[in-house]
Amino acid sequence: MRVLVDTNVILDVLCNRKDFVMNALRVFQCCEAQRMTGYISALSIPNIVYIMRKELDPERIKEILHTLTMVFSVVELREGDLLKAAELPFGDYEDAIQSVCAARVRADYIVTRNGKDFANSIVPAIAPIDLLERL
Known about the structure:
The chain is globular. 52% of the residues lie in helices and 13% in strands. It has a five-stranded parallel beta sheet with strand order 3-2-1-4-5. It is α/β, with parallel strands linked by helices. It contains seven helices and five strands. The chain has one domain: 5'-nuclease (Rossmann fold), CATH 3.40.50. It has helices at 7-14, 21-32, 44-51, 58-71, 79-87, 93-104, 128-134, and strands at 2-5, 37-41, 73-75, 109-111, 125-126. Helix 1 (7-14) crosses helix 2 (21-32) and helix 5 (79-87) crosses helix 6 (93-104).
């Protein structure tokens, strides 16, 4: 199984969000153990650093990047992705980019807590708990 993990699930782990961290961490562990192939969009990296900027120094940013690139393959952004995302009927351009990247790597699911934001996605969205139940 191939999954693109949305930024909010990554942040659940990195920020230790108490209501969500356990399922998000289990998704990380499944990707790390290669029970599924995990991807993250290159867009997620600067978004993560921006959101966590008050808590990060350059060394911690390196640690996070090292961990993320060991667990997930990073899907680069292409000009065509940006243009295609702009054409999609999404309310949020970032979500459209995630959808385009998921489709390009032929992901089975986008793992997110915001499934409704991906209602128009070619690749279906699934919550971490629902994904784990399917494994």
